[in-house]
Amino acid sequence: MAEGGGCRAVSGPELRDLHTRFLAAEPAAAWLNAERELALERFLRAGFPRPGDEDWKYTRIDRFESLTLDHLAERPPRADAATQRLLEDLPLPDGGLRIVIANGRVGELPRKPAAGLALGSLATASPDERAAIATRLELAADPELPSLAALNAAFLSDLLHIRVAAGARPGLTLQVVHVAAGETAAIQDRVLVELGEGSQLTLIEHFLGRGTVAVNAVTELHAAAGADCRYIRVQEAGPDCQQVTAQSLRLAEDSRADVVDIALGASLARNDLHIDLAGRGARAEVHGLLHSTGGQHSDCHLRIDHRAGDSNSRAAFPGVVGGRSRGVFNGKIIVHGGADGSDASLENRNLLLDRQAEIDTKPELEIYTDDVKCSHGATTGQLDAAAVFYLRSRGVAEADARRLLMLAFAGAITARLPAGGLRERVEACCSERVGAAAEAAA
User: What are phi and psi for residue 45, nearest 5 degrees?
Assistant: First the structure.
């Protein structure tokens, strides 16, 4: 891999040596070593992303890369009391079940969480589960997938495996909390979700962190015909965290995914959300929020592939950026040949809280068939002066008027979170951020 932009260079032999040391420290899951080796070779061919790559032209990951290479073969530190306090402050949804992945290790799992719901890890996997996991990891060598997903598979210590039986509809919300903590560490988290035909699941992934850590996390979700998934991701990593995450959702015939994605934390945050509408009648709704302040760099990439006819997607992903921060949004919808009758829309509206903020947006639409209905668009600007004036004419102080308008901009997305503690927590975070910006601008 070539050195660039101040990144630490590493040769193929050096990385293979790191991998050999890593495998020697992970004897419990030696049955995955062949798949890990395939993933390593895939990563060696691609390397770390560079600004010259079109999908990474606005985002440099020098610090993430250095942290990763320095600590890739090390065991991350175990969770401590401070980490536990992070969990204690996090609300659990009503009727929810919490699973913790702390520094890449899956915590204790209930044996019988709910009817039709099974939870497993590398340590508890049965022979059948091992075969399913190995098959999925083989796909990490696919050159179409992000190279960092291959790095994740190559250096994977543990994995959370969620399975919902055909026709099962567990009456609970599954909350998976990813906690990354340590003075310095490189962490590879992975979650594999398999939904049987006609099944249903509500899944929340919540990312927390403290310390100088590099997190590389991957979530795969495979929905069989007629399955229904509500997927929520909230990213609240600490201010020194370098975080790169990816989710891949594959929807079969007549299956549905309702996605809410909230990006709040980390010094550097890059997220790739890919939804594959693989079966006829598959549907996806995506409601995301990129909220970056205080010098953060937040990059959100969304790709939706319509591969089958009569598939439907709706995506709205606003951005709120202020305080010397930079936001990046790239949204791409691809309607493949044969996907007649597809209906897709993509909207990205961005609000700059001050003149020091910056956002780069690129909505894309590629259509390779006829008889489709598609639209996409993006806007970027500051608060509507007329709206501020209107509120002030009604006796609202200027700072309060600005805060209310800023909150309303983000509120269309946060309102889609489940009512209760989680929504209140996210709304409080947004309110604190925009309040400071409103005071400064008043």
Answer: -70, -35
- CA-nearest of 195, 41, 176 to 121 is 176
The one-letter amino acid code at 258 reads D
CB atoms within 10 A of CB 423: 16
Task: Write down the domain spans for the chain.
Answer: 12-278, 385-442
Rounded distance between C-alpha atoms, residue 426 and residue 152, angstroms: 28
Residue 264, Cβ density class (10 Å: 0-12 exposed, 13-18 middle, ≥19 buried): buried
Residues 6+ apart with CB under 8 A from 208: 86, 87, 90, 177, 178, 179, 180, 236, 237, 238
pLDDT > 70: percent of the chain: 95
- For the chain, what is the total number of helices (H) and then of strands (E)? 9, 18
Instruction: Locate the DSSP E strands across 103-199.
Output: 105-106, 117-120, 160-164, 173-195
Cβ–Cβ under 8 Å, residues 347 and 338: no
pLDDT in tens, 316-348: 999 999 888 999 999 999 999 999 999 999 999
Greater confidence (428 vs 2) lies with 428
> In this structure, what token pair is assigned to residue 316?
């709205």
Position of tokens 């501020």? 388
304's tokens:
């939706």
Measuring CA to CA, which residue among 384, 331, 323, 333 is closest to residue 360?
Answer: 331
Cα dihedral sign for 260, 266, 269, 271?
negative
What six digits make up the tokens of 128? 């059948």
- Summarize pLDDT for 342-381 with one digit per residue, the tens: 999 999 999 998 888 999 999 999 999 999 999 999 999 8
Q: Which DSSP symbol is given to 367?
A: E
DSSP string, 388-430: HHHHHHTT--HHHHHHHHHHHHHHHHHTTSPTTHHHHHHHHHH
- Cβ partners under 8 Å of residue 152, min gap 6: 39, 140, 188, 189, 190, 216, 217, 218
